[in-house]
Design goal:
Structural class: mainly alpha
Mean pLDDT: 77
Number of helices: 5
Distance between the termini: 35 Å
Shape: globular
Low-confidence stretches: none
Strand order of the largest sheet: 1-2
Number of domains: 1
Largest sheet: 2 strands, parallel
Number of strands: 2
Strand content: 5-15%
């Protein structure tokens, strides 16, 4: 049995076209990478996390299901304890159906 790795990469709206093709699918360079959408010091740089989700969704014509996957990826890639992740994933499942 091999070791399984999970690699996460943060995506900012300006970077998305570089890693996704025009159909919104992962390019060969990032296939299998856990893509997340985040913000970094929005008070200085703008780009609150909701703004970033909206920009990514608009630029790539993402569906609600695509956005749920991104949210799920963010939870799974976080440094939260397992129980906290499970609680958030359950909450996400509750609002995404």
């Amino acid at each position: 049995m091999g070791t399984e790795f999970s690699i996460a990469v943060q995506v900012a709206p300006g970077e998305a076209p570089e890693i996704l093709n025009t159909a919104g699918e992962a390019s060969d360079a990032v296939r299998g990478v856990l893509v997340t959408v985040n913000s970094d010091d929005p008070a200085y740089f703008g780009g609150y996390v909701l703004d970033n989700y909206l920009a990514i969704a608009d630029a790539l014509d993402l569906t609600r299901e695509d956005l749920v996957v991104l949210a799920r990826n963010s939870i799974e890639a976080s440094f939260l304890p397992t129980r906290a992740k499970a609680a958030l994933l359950t909450e996400l499942d509750g609002v995404s159906t």
